[in-house]
Write a structure and sequence with these properties.
Layout lengths: L21 H12 L6 H15 L1 H11 L2 E7 L1 H9 L4 E11 L5 H7 E11 L2 H6 L6
Parallel strand pairs: 1-2, 2-3
Length: 137
């Protein structure tokens, strides 16, 4: 019998919802119909990436000023147990994806995580998120 290692699934994208007026939506559909974009999502992703690129310097400066981790930051049970053993507390600050392992108990999270600021997505069990609710900004 083969043993499988279970790892949390890392989502490469998050779903968002936007509201557009009929004129904007019609223009998007026209550009898709004319072959400029493969679909509505393609146009919207391209527009967002263009805006992020035009503001890249501001993002970099803000990340440095606020001491944010840029990208993916994963906290395992062992990581949090080491922080707890050292008598320290974490101030999690991430621009991107912060994930807390599924085997982290709410008690361990509360004992080791002082605050959570995530600009992007936070993946953790529902119990851990509920336990940290007052510390998530």
């Amino acid at each position: 019998m083969a043993l499988q290692e279970f790892r949390p699934k890392i989502v490469e994208s998050e779903k968002i919802t936007i509201n557009l007026g009929p004129v904007d939506l019609g223009q998007i559909d026209l550009l898709v119909q004319e072959g400029f974009y493969s679909n509505r999502t393609d146009l919207i992703r391209t527009a967002i990436r263009n805006q992020l690129q035009s503001h890249a310097d501001v993002v970099k400066q803000t990340v440095a000023r606020k001491s944010l981790v840029l990208g993916l930051q994963h906290y395992s049970r062992a990581d949090l147990e080491a922080v707890h053993a050292a008598g320290e507390k974490l101030h999690i600050q991430v621009l991107g994806l912060a994930s807390i392992a599924n085997d982290v108990t709410p008690e361990l999270a509360v004992a080791t995580i002082e605050s959570v600021t995530v600009l992007g997505a936070l993946h953790a069990s529902a119990a851990v998120k509920a336990a940290l609710a007052g510390r998530i900004r």
